From TrEMBL:
Pfam families: Arginase (PF00491)
Biological process (GO), any one: urea cycle
Catalytic activity entry: L-arginine + H2O = urea + L-ornithine
Bias kind Low complexity: ranges: 116-138
Region (Disordered): 116-142
Cellular component terms per the entry's GO annotation: cytosol; nucleus
Cofactor, free-text remark: Binds 2 manganese ions per subunit.
Cofactor dependence: Mn(2+)
Keyword tags: Arginine metabolism, Hydrolase, Manganese, Metal-binding
Pathway listed: Nitrogen metabolism; urea cycle; L-ornithine and urea from L-arginine: step 1/1
UniProt name for this protein: Arginase
Example GO molecular function: arginase activity
Length: 393
């Protein structure tokens, strides 16, 4: 497998060539590149992704972030998904694949990195930007710790804002190249950044949000203060979201008619009010039962993208899937999408050729037993593949 990888960063080539996946866990900055070829599978994707430029290329953004909610472990997901072979799987579908390590997301002063987490350097010993073994000149900066007090009800607001600002930049950079950003979370607060980044390149993009939850609480309406329940309200610019530090970089970029939900089944009172008040289209599990997933996806597309002429950002929370299919996630809710319903959504969106950005969020490899983790990680990988054009035949 390593023969088909080209490590582009000379600074860290030695450690990466030795074992790119293990070094990913140890947080050395590096870059993996994998090219499609006939012997691996396809030389180009099944569908033409009409808004991308040049050879079909995906830029994977791995963001090991758990600050938008209370449970650690969701920050381990990018490494897990990459270790499961995602880079090679996508290049076998005909994509050029670039993957950047996530060091910059950890190098944030407000980040209370859990010492037990393999997604994080150990405090006081590890260094940033290539690490001590690479001999990098900029490798001497130690982790700074700054307090991140609640602002109103919002928990870890400075950290969530700072990480999302970086995610927005990276997603935009990838999109500007004409590539497709595939963001591996991390908790779903990261969609503030991913959608902002996508919208910077494609102002008319619509958003398809697949989730058990609406994630549309505002900083005023949230009960828990966990910002992974709030990203959509920030994107829409709802009441209470014009608040520092977010307002310093995050501009409302989404209109209520540009988003559609699929898979909802755990929506709290204030969220129901917000959905109604703004006339936001949502297909709950009730609608999936009533119409079937094929019709639901068609109706969802007819609402946000009637002529299939607009770019689509897909933000997929794996808790949309039933807990039987994706058990290792922070807020599982029974009665979710079956394995096939969940994958049908991604297949149907790939088929439109309109996808320009994809998020796979809320896989938490620290929850439940190894077989549950394996199932959930495999589901995350297969959703990513199906979004990029993998078909059953
Ligand atoms: Mn979510």
């Amino acid at each position: 497998m390593s023969a088909i990888r080209k490590i582009l960063s000379p600074l860290t080539a030695r450690t990466c060539l030795a074992s790119p996946i293990r070094r990913a866990g140890a947080n050395r900055s590096f870059h993996i590149y994998s090219k499609p070829s006939a012997e691996k599978g396809r030389t180009e994707p099944q569908y033409r992704f009409k808004f991308l430029k040049g050879a079909p290329t995906v830029g994977i953004v791995g963001c090991p972030f758990s600050g938008g909610q209370g449970r650690t472990g969701v920050d381990l997901a990018p490494n897990k998904l990459i270790s499961a072979g995602l880079v090679d799987q996508l290049s076998a579908l005909g994509w050029e694949v670039h993957y950047n390590s996530q060091q910059k997301y950890i190098d944030i002063p407000y980040n209370p990195i859990p010492a037990s987490s393999p997604a994080a350097p150990s405090e006081g010993t590890e260094t940033f930007n290539g690490g001590s073994t690479s001999g990098s000149g900029s490798a001497d900066k130690k982790i700074q710790r700054l307090p991140d007090e609640d602002i109103g009800k919002m928990k870890k607001p400075r950290l969530v804002s700072a990480v999302n600002q970086k995610v927005a930049q990276e997603v935009e950079e990838i999109a500007q190249k004409g590539w497709l950003p595939l963001t591996l979370g991390g908790d779903h607060s990261l969609a503030m950044g991913t959608v902002s980044g996508t919208k910077a390149k494609y102002p008319d993009a619509c958003l398809i949000w697949v989730d058990a939850h609406a994630d549309i609480n505002t900083p005023l309406s949230t009960d828990s203060g966990n910002l992974h329940g709030c990203p959509v309200s920030f994107l829409l610019g709802l009441e209470g979201t014009d608040v520092s530090p977010f307002s310093e970089w995050l501009k409302p970029c989404l209109k209520p008619e540009e988003i559609v939900y699929i898979g909802l089944r755990d929506v709290d009172g204030p969220e129901k009010e917000i959905l109604k008040k703004h006339g936001i289209k949502a297909f709950s599990m009730h609608h999936v039962d009533k119409y079937g997933i094929g019709k639901v996806v068609e109706m969802a597309l007819d609402h946000v993208n009637p002529d299939r002429s607009k770019p689509i950002h897909l933000s997929y929370d794996v808790d949309a899937l039933d807990p039987i299919v994706a058990p290792s996630t922070g807020t599982p809710v029974r009665g979710g999408l079956t394995f096939r319903e969940g994958h049908y959504i991604t297949e149907a969106l790939a088929e439109t050729g309109c996808l320009v950005s994809v998020d796979i969020m809320e896989v938490n490899p620290a929850l439940l037993d190894p077989s549950s983790v394996e199932k959930t990680v495999a589901a995350g990988c297969s959703l990513a593949r199906a979004s990029l054009g993998e078909t059953l035949l």
